[in-house]
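Quick one - inputs below.
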Amino acid sequence: MSANLTIKTFRKEMSWVRKTEQSWVHRLCQQVLKCGPVPKHVAFIMDGNRRFAVKNSLERAEGHIMGFEKLAKALEWCSNLGIMEVTVYAFSIENFKRSKDEVDGLMELARQKFAKLLQEKENLDKHGVCIRVLGNLNLLPHDVQVAVANAVNLTKHNARAVLNVCFAYTSRDEICSAMRDVAHGVEQGIIRDR
Amino acid sequence: MLFYDVLLQSIHLVVTWGTLLVSWMAIFVKPWKLSQKTRPLNLSSIYSDSKLLQKLPIHIGFLFLEDDLSCTDIATLIVWCMSLGISYISLYDRKGILKRNAFLETEIVRKQKELLGKDATRFNIFLHRHFFNREKLVVERNINQIDVQLLSEEDGRQSLVHTARQFSRAVAVKQYKISDISPSTIDTFLLDKSSFPDPDLVLRFGAVDSLLGFLPWQVRLTEILSLPTHRNIDYKSFLRLLQAFGDIKQRFGKKD
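Output:
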């Protein structure tokens, strides 16, 4: 199958929540796994989109789109296995160091995906999916921040499954934000310093 | 459907035991194969091995995530590291058993004599048992000075809590603005207390796939490798991990 045909096929199904046909082997493995303990929370580090693109002679942006596709599939697998919380490390603050084209492409992908979320409200509510976005959102373009805020607001009352999207994060930045919040709390007298 | 459920449970059982067996083999069979004897170790042979490594860690961390700790093997690891030229070593066990252990120092001295012979007294080893309030490290370092810090869970998150408290107090008395709290000021504060650079390599011993609270702030770019156990650790396995460390390429999030 040519790369172009594959992309076109996928473009139809760019949604976040999906139910696809599974082979009997897949279903059997799933049922065997569910006989034992299954992690409650799994995190995915999304690495290798660019290498995938190079290997398949695709544009980098296409590599990222395919990465999202795989993520959506992984979310379906997790949901079927009873893994109710998934965290995805989508974009690190370190990734801002990449070329302007690539960063813009990723922001555009985010813009589209979060906008699509708003269209899938019924599906998300049906599956009880709550979406949280974690990171230093001030570093993102304003319209992406708005799209993110809308998506989070839309799904905040859902409680069956949680998807944490880490966007514009580094562990140190997060720890630093937490320390700032604590300092602010102490300054305002909300937190007592014993 | 009861028969089907029983079938699924049986398959699950078989897979579980199969995986367990394979991991047991890694712990028992491999060391047995490797104990076919090797050339004698001494300072110059270990030092020449270090020359063949692509990259040598400046600060190496050993995470002992097992129930029984063997001071002898830990001391052996320290002596190998010293001989290779690694001058910052961290030893971590979650509950702080190593910190309270009286035998570690004597074991280190004993192993130095055993492995290094006449070169045994060449190195100056400093053991640091506290994260904060430790003696400042000697500023002018020479290659024979070895600093070893003994760490436990309380030196990880708790030290970050302590840092947050100090910064909050500084903000409360208007010495600092909230915007002065940044990853670099926090880093400077922690570095000032510990004087150890961030670990570039961490070796994890035990079956747990986690750092279990080891210095969460400092392991930002640390390479993490593991071995099933530290007991009867052999030099070849250790060296192989250092070689693997040398081959790893880090891209730091940007373009290759």
